[in-house]
Please model this.
Amino acid sequence: MSIIIKNISKSYKKVKALEDISLEVKPGELFGLIGPDGAGKTTLFRVLTTLLIANEGVATVAGFDVITDYKSIRKNVGYMPGKFSLYQDLTVEENLDFFATIFGTTIEENYDLIKDIYVQIAPFKDRRAGKLSGGMKQKLALCCALIHKPKVLFLDEPTTGVDPVSRKEFWEMLKRLQQKDITILVSTPYMDEAALCDRIALIQDGKILEIDTPEAIVKHYPYQIYNVGANNMYQLINNLKEYEFNHSVYPFGEFVHYTDTRENFNPNDLKTYLESKNLSNVLIERTSATIEDTFMELAK
Ligand SMILES: Nc1ncnc2c1ncn2[C@@H]1O[C@H](COP(=O)(O)OP(=O)(O)OP(=O)(O)O)[C@@H](O)[C@H]1O
Model:
């Protein structure tokens, strides 16, 4: 296993940031930690990259213990923290040179690994990092995290605040890195990115809700979901919440996702109820569960 986490707990005074977390990441896997702000993702990354000591539990990364072998871990992992981690006043090239030097290597030595990503920012190599766009900064930070050819790469919310095109490109880059035998643990609050991982852990309030492949997680969803639409979204949500048979109701894009407690649910009954509340253009249609639906159900 590339990463083994056993019963890790970490508190900041009264706040329990991680509670009895256990999971394993296989060599070469692209594993996603999916959860909202405050779920504990950054705390787990900091424990695994030896920047923070857990209160309980044990963890190894690339075969090294996070406490006793912390120096080996630092040599063998790349870490791209959530907040921009580069030197704003150094140029693109100077930042990369700096990170290569502290790891006792050179840009040339590992150029092959970063080439695909670096060519995209090379035209700006003399620009200060602080003056780059969000997508460019993210590519530079990834190059810096890769420059010493790590065995395991930790990426904490790498696409937060990045435009949709750059996000898509970033995930394509991760897939290519995976082909080069790098194990990747990536966190994201974006549920659509979960589907791009080999396996994911859904995490909330410091606890793991479920670990599986994205396909299996969606398949385990126990209810039939309906897209419900009407002329007044706000009133629709309120009326659905008042409906005695509702199991769950939450906005989802242009519709409301609705599940019913009855096994023999007939959508026409719901339509009649909603129309009796003076809603018009009522539409009710079956839809498939997504990772977000599963998350909402588990987090209830
Ligand atoms: N240094 C700290 N002192 C006190 N509480 C903290 C500290 N760091 C994090 N926390 C709390 O621990 C919990 C987990 O935070 P963490 O940053 O690990 O979550 P996260 O999933 O990475 O979310 P975010 O994206 O907001 O950073 C939160 O309730 C947070 O407020």
Remarks:
- The pocket of adenosine-5'-triphosphate is lined by residues 12, 15, 17, 35, 37-43, 157 (CB under 6 Å).
- The chain has a mean pLDDT of 94.
- The CA atoms of residues 134 and 162 lie 6 Å apart.
- The longest strand covers residues 15-25.
